[in-house]
Amino acid sequence: MKKVMIIGAVRAGKSTLIKALFGESEPSTKTQSLIYRDWIIDTPGEYSENPLYYRSLIATSHETAAVVLVQDATRNRNYFPPGFEQGFPMLTLGVVTKIDHPKADIDRAISLLRQSLPEGEIFLTSAASTEGIQKLKERLMEIVKD
């Protein structure tokens, strides 16, 4: 079974999103290195924030069926460079996290994500309420089973 690699800034909600996809509710811990878990690869936020790590992300992506770019709805900045998804030779999806947070701005998050992912699916999620989690999981499972 192929895997899906999750990429996003530090504290964007990647590990919490992964726990929600697996139906787990305990708090997440800081990801320090690439973590392979079942059909997902969790990446440290520093990998998307520092261009020195892009080569590692691109190399790791060759083990995957898809790459997921995560944008935190509470942030007013995109941590991916413009057109970032073009560096990956496979399907790239977007996920906006924390959509139910009081400081969330979903439209801004989508707009920021579109700078790096001009086309392709974007899923809106909340690990806290589980909104959007099942729909995202179903789509990811379709991808990894193909």
TrEMBL record:
Pfam families associated with the record: PduV-EutP
TM segment ranges: none
InterPro entries associated with the record: EutP_PduV, P-loop_NTPase
Record keywords: Nucleotide-binding
Matches recorded under Gene3D superfamilies: P-loop containing nucleotide triphosphate hydrolases
Family: Belongs to the EutP/PduV family.
Protein name: EutP/PduV family microcompartment system protein
Species in which this protein is naturally found: Paenibacillus alginolyticus
Lineage: Bacteria, Bacillati, Bacillota, Bacilli, Bacillales
